[in-house]
Amino acid sequence: MATADAIVIGAGIIGTACAWQLAQQGLRVLLVDDQRPGATAAGMGHLVCMDDNPAELALSSYSLNLWRSVVDRMPEDCAWRDCGTLWLAEKPEEMAIAEVKQQRMAAFGVNSELLTPQQVVQLEPMLRGGLAGGLRVPGDGIIYAPNAARWLVDDAGQAVQRIYGEVIALEQQSVVLASGQRFSAPVITLACGLQADKLLATPLLRAKKGQLAITDRYPHTVKHQLVELGYGASAHASDGTSVAFNVQARPTGQLLIGSSRQFDTLNPAIDMPLLATMLKRATDYLPELAKMNIIRCWAGFRAASADGLPLLGPHPDYSWLWLALGHEGLGVTTAMGSAALIAAQIQQQRTAIDDTPYLAARMFATDECLL
């Protein structure tokens, strides 16, 4: 039976960030990797400050500051770019949303600037005319999340040991793999997204399917991450199917196009009508996209909690079990902040921001043991 100070289950961006943060605290960590591509491999890799509720804003702004403290040390293949985000108002009344967004962000020290229609065109000439303006958030960025996750493990050095296999059971301070191997540690952190529900008797997460498309390489002029101001309503809708304009210029010269959301399906196949709707929405903002070749489309699954906030904290019934789950579409953005909260809780240190809104115990209605 191998031992460590902590075990982290899940080697996506959340799990690797948790392992990295625990290693910074001097702990020896076993990172269990089932080698199945998850949300980290399928997502857009945006580092974007979101303000749809105060808790989301607090965590995303805190986490972005932590990302900025390490991005200069990342290798080039992590594809970090400080491109900023340009939130676009399609109609004049949406500028009121931009103004509120600016005020909320300013309260957390996040700089942004309101833009006139003329300024939007000057910054991004590929956008169609007739937009009502926008809000530029220069501190946002992008990374290539799969490589960033690998870098976090590499940067931790010998403090993090990667173990390959599927966890099929949790026992008292132990994990059991499908191979029959057993590993133990005083603390275990569950950071494996939708797979966590298989290990817990109470379902905590809901699947939100998303689809993305990427173009061939072009000498285009898109500089920012481009997002419509209606994105928040689409992202946080509690039911139904939705699309919203969201385009990134990748360092490769490609355009990554999103986004869509479908609920309660685990079918990995591309939904062609929904993809067509998503691409039509994108060409409404960037007409030249219609002339570009789409070379790949794919789908992935976000793990969402019932209230839209991640579950970050100890399981209410098991003092040795921590949850780092339910980040939905903000896993990359909030990975470093989430991991810092988890590490501080495990070490019984004061958290840098109030962790009350994210504590996992809020999702458990009873004290009945689950494992």
UniProtKB/TrEMBL annotation:
EC no.? 1.-.-.-, 1.4.3.3
Domain FAD dependent oxidoreductase stretches:
5-344
Q: Which residues form a coiled coil?
A: none
Q: Which top-rank group of organisms is this from?
A: Bacteria
Keyword annotations from UniProtKB, A to Z: Oxidoreductase
A GO molecular-function descriptor = D-amino-acid oxidase activity
Output this protein's name: D-amino-acid oxidase
Protein species of origin:
Buttiauxella ferragutiae ATCC 51602
